[in-house]
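Suppose you are handed a protein chain with no further information: no name, no annotation, nothing but its sequence. What can you learn? This example shows the usual starting point.
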Amino acid sequence: MEINLPEVVAEVTALCAAYNKALIENDVEALSDFFWDSEHALRLGVAEELYGADEIRAFRKARVVNFSDRKHLRETLLTIGQDFASATLEFTVKVNGSPRHGRQSQVWARLPELGWKIVSAHVSHKVTANNRAAFGDGAAAAYVAAASQLLELPIDPEFRDGVVANLDVMKKIAGPLMQFDLGDEEPAASFTA
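A reasonable first move is to predict its three-dimensional structure. Written in structure tokens, the prediction is:
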């Protein structure tokens, strides 16, 4: 097994740089072209699960992002043989003015007649002491992600943290009200005919 052959590392390094440039420029067409055009392509994001190239393309087209302040912290590349690579990246980006520590991983494969394509990708934000208030204890973020998927109502990543933070505040406001005992009596008058 040949690990990190210099020529393969150079190829995939250049592809990763081009991908990140397209991401910062929000070049939807280029970003879609990096992914394998297959039902088997996969991208798991901060709050979305995208199965197949069609879902990945639709997600890219529907969202509006500004990653102009995205900074790379650490990049790691592993190639195995001539046709397989794994790339990971830690980065910072601001979401709603708040800094986020993000993680991105990609599995690249050199496919016959197609060349190098991303076959699987994952993006997540690390919950830290600085952004824990926006994410709450995790339950609000999980609820927002599940409700968004169930209702087929995508929430732009730029606004998602604000939605989660507001839901967490509503939970705190409603908490004392839910503790109020109404008793056994019906609180409103009832009318019969």
